[in-house]
Amino acid sequence: MFKKWDIIIIISLLCLSFTPELVFGVMMGKNYNGTYAEVTLDGKPYKKVLLSEHRGEDEIEVKTEYGYNTIEIKDTSIRIIDSDCPDKICVKAGFISKPGDLLVCLPHKLMIEIKSNDNEKDTDIIPMH
Amino acid sequence: MRKTFRIVFIGLLVSQALALYSVESMIPVPFIAPGAKLGLANLITVVALYTLDSKRDVFLVIILRLFLSTMIGGSLSTFMYSVAGAIFSYCAMIFVKEFFKDKVSIIGVSAAGAFFHNVGQLIVASAIVENIAIMLYLPILSIAGIGTGIFIGVTANFIVKHLSKLHYFRNLT
Asked: What domain range includes position A20?
């Protein structure tokens, strides 16, 4: 009653039924619950740094016509470690790591914003004052 | 196949499918997975696929059964799920039957039909809730579906074997 191709079809259908699982697994693994830092220069996106999977220390040098900023990424947090801007506000701000946090170096028009792929879920913005 | 015979036979198939549908709705769902059911009416689709000459008549049987079963006991939402499932499984069964010809028996055709019935339903479900993640439910549904599909295929095998003894169906394989 069973033929050889019946078995082949049934087995391949069973395998096929797990494809959504695989596709979603790959997609989730890539950006699920991920935070990343977006560096913008003069409003234009310059670089994206994945933070949630980041381990160890890294440095990025950003040079513009206004000057330079050295960005340090340590594990999942990011800060501006050095800059030649006059006020050094960005350096004093220290590390940021939570979605929604901002680092701004106004003289260099540089901005680092931490974003999350599921930011609707985990950032509750409570207006103070 | 003469014209009168064709009409009567299609009518018989549709009424058998409706009877199976209403009997099936009385059986409590024997699976853990919600939404999974035996799909006894699919038996008629498979039998129609193997006994009727033209593909159009098979489609007619399916569509008539869908409309009438919705009128007997169903809602618009179950109709939408059923239509998508039925059209998907119809295409899949035609494809498997034509592509593999003699290499595949009714069991393979019926299992493919059951699987694509589930796929069609889940596509409609994910379109309704606008979330493709519903497709993650596919393995549970399709394992149950392929299981009943094999069962339906075995049953249809017996039916077609006995039908082929009638002289109307001499040309059946």
From this structure: 1-32
A128 part of a folded domain: no
A–B interface: beta-carbon pairs under 8 A: 61
User: How many angstroms away from the CA of B47 is the closest CA of chain A?
Assistant: 16
CB contact under 8 A, A16 and B115: yes
pTM: 0.65
- This model of the complex carries an ipTM of 0.76
Domain co-membership, A22 together with A37: no
Domain assignment of residue A56, yes or no: yes
Structure confidence by residue, pLDDT tens digits, B28-41: 766 556 666 778 88
Task: Indicate the number of domains in chain A.
Answer: 2
| B41 touches B69 (CB < 8 A) | yes
Contact B66, B45 (CB under 8 A): no
Domains and CATH numbers, chain B: 3-169 (1.10.1760)
How many angstroms separate the CA of residue A13 from the nearest CA in chain B? 7
B108 contacts in chain A (CB < 8 Å): 3, 5-6, 9-10
